[in-house]
Design goal:
The protein is α/β, with parallel strands linked by helices. It is built from six helices and nine strands; from the N terminus they run E-H-E-H-E-H-E-E-H-E-H-E-H-E-E. It folds into two domains: 182 residues, Rossmann fold; 34 residues, no CATH class.
């Protein structure tokens, strides 16, 4: 089974890109499975199940970062998809934490970015882009050619080894090269690992402390006028 992990900021068109990819794979008689990871609401799994009749699952990360949640559930997800007889497992994560990367070894990492979000967006999304295999640029029909070229240049500045694909996710234009790359993927092995190092830090805010000011917290702290430091056991 082949593993594809799709991340990107909200509203970039991740689901639309995956919909076209899955449709083309099904037309070739391939079997796919789909997992959606979001914070508190998602219905893409239901829509994919109804449209394609493929096995789907959904996980709400809740108090966890979606990428953290992905690490926790991915092992079980792979076993589930293999049991369902899937040849391709697609994982779509909300990707809200720009300090993390959801991609693992032996997977294809798709970072979906919308061209209308500003030419400097690639400079802001961190490992979500720099550790991806392919940067998929959507909504290219809404900006000028000059803006498209600058956006591509920004991506190459941050991630020179990442392949850039421009698509129209509304009509499925530019999807075929992605499908060919997915079909050429090797199967996943038994010892997947994260590609990058997650942030080193313990966040007392995430575990429920509500006090304002660094003095009330532990873990990795940052006062206004000083560098980051660690306080705790």
């Amino acid at each position: 089974m082949k593993l594809i992990i799709c991340a990107g900021p909200a509203t970039t068109g991740k689901t639309s890109v995956l919909r076209h990819i899955i449709r083309k794979l099904i037309e070739k008689d391939h079997r796919a499975a789909y997992l959606k990871i979001d914070v508190q609401f998602a219905e893409e799994d239901i829509k994919f199940q109804e449209e394609f009749r493929i096995p789907t699952r959904k996980v709400y990360s809740g108090e966890l970062c979606p990428d953290h949640c992905s690490v926790m559930v991915l092992g079980d997800t792979i076993k589930w998809a293999q049991k369902e007889g899937a040849e391709y497992l697609f994982v779509e994560t909300a990707g809200l934490c720009l300090r993390c990367s959801p991609y693992v070894t032996e997977s294809l990492g798709l970072a979906v970015l919308e061209a209308t979000s500003g030419i400097n967006l690639p400079l802001k999304v961190g490992p979500m882009l720099s550790l991806a295999d392919i940067a998929v640029i959507t909504k290219i029909d809404r900006i000028s050619q000059a803006e498209r070229e600058v956006f591509r240049a920004r991506i190459q500045e941050v991630a020179p080894d990442v392949r850039v694909r421009e698509v129209n996710a509304l009509y499925g234009i530019g999807i075929d090269p992605l499908v060919r790359q997915i079909e050429a993927l090797p199967d996943v092995g038994d010892s997947l690992k994260l590609r990058g190092n997650p942030p080193v830090g313990t966040c007392s805010i995430c575990v429920g402390k509500k006090e304002i000011g660094w003095e009330a917290h532990f873990g990795v702290l940052r006062p206004l006028d000083n560098q980051t430091f660690y306080r705790g056991q």
